[in-house]
Amino acid sequence: MSLLLFSGSLHIESDARDSRAASTEPGQPATQRVTLPAFPGAEGFGSTTPGGRGGRVIKVTNLNDSGPGSLREALEAEGPRIVVFEVGGVIDLQRDIRITHPYLTVAGQTAPGDGIILRGAGIRIVRTHDIIIRGLTIRPGDDPEGPRPGIRRAITIWGTTENPSYNVIVDHNSLSWSTDEVVGVGYAHDVTFQYNFITEPLHNSIHQEGPHGFAFALYGKDPMDRISVHHNIIAHGYNRNPQYANGVDGEAINNVIYNWGNRGLSVIADVLINVIGNHFIAGPDTPPDSRGVVIGCPDSDCGATRVYVQGNLGPFRPTNSGDEWLVVDGDERYRSDVPAGALSGVTIDPVETLYAQLSSPHGAGNLTTGRQRDGVDRRILTEIETRTGRIRDCVDADPIYYPEGQVQGATSNTVTVEHHPGDTQQGPNPQNRHTYDGNSIEITTGAAAGQVRDVVRFNPRTNVVTVDRPWDVIPEVGAAYRFIVHCDNNAGGWPDYVTSFDAPADSDDDGMPDAWEIANGLNPNRYDANETTLSPEGYDNIEVYINSLIPMQGGS
User: Less Cβ crowding at N or C end of the chain, within 10 Å?
Assistant: First the structure.
């Protein structure tokens, strides 16, 4: 047996653990030579990451945005680490938590009470690798004082061609209420999203480009491959449910996709995608002619795109029989009758019973053995079952005033506003995209104060807003204005979450409760988190504990 010291904590590595090989990065923990799953039930291209295995245990002890004991400090720390929680409740984030150092396991399932809810911002994984995120609820929301709306997501995984993000698995989380996509992934490879709720991106909200209720975008080239999206519930997204664009290679398997507005699963340009065993369920916002999968590319040229579809259900394929292409709206020249690119080996469950499986108490979402879904996710399940619910614009009913500024000029039925970040659209036809569609504008100072008009048109090149009827008094230059986002179509507001410090006793501070250690033959007064007493396969003792808190279906 050898003793290795990492980041001030003792790491014990038994000679019997020959399934671990030396890391390719000096000073980092040994990683798996063989395909030991990140946790039992992990599948897909990102499923063999060790995460923080072998690293120190960091406890989150408060709900502060930053500082000692905070989630931000734990996630932004260096070195291999397994993050557990002694507190449950809402963490109000002022900005995204940026994960830039590798070898991390986030065990949100260990939080007491209602678990951990991130509000205001999200998590951003940037140019790093070997990350496991489980058991969190992330709802950035639509507070105009929060981070930039154009990139406000629950989870972002991002890299560059030279330094991509990779070996990431996101499992059993509830992700919603973004003003950009709920999830965005780019310049990454070997990534898995499984058993998550990815729901209710806010549509006519405060995104600079106007209506933007997009659920899940995967895009960017060199690299952007080996992406697995399986066994998720994706609901109430206007578009990108998910979207595979610009060179993505991946698989979408056994997802339930409900009430898309414009497009369900969309494919754009040079994509290799295997679409297997998904259930596309039309809802109140789904166009009657929508099939579930859309192939649509600039100038009708999708390049090297190939789409393999097998065993999916949808509005035009209600039973698992007949032409597989009935779930697709797109040119058959992009059809592949054999898998398009590699398959990871995800367990493919019967599509006929998929919804029952994912909606069960052991299915998708932020679930543990002692904690069930919150009211938002229960409502969404009811809406899927009753074919009700809508694509939402806001979190609650209060109107949002955003952005504000000073009048630059006006005519009888226009007002020229300031240039707000993000107003100027990119691409060859920016005039075709209107920033303030569906909103109103109010003049709040000067002789024209109190006048409210609906926005008819916005020209992002000139910053001229055309209103629905003439001003009674033309606003003067320098008068203050504010745009109004109307929130009649809202998600019902934030649930009441209970703050809890009722974590079980842990005498040796190793992240495993005393009672659990005693029940499993360990010494509650001895730090043995990184030993493998309980796992011949090679999982740390603390991994055995945290993995026991999320019951898995299928998988390894």
Answer: N
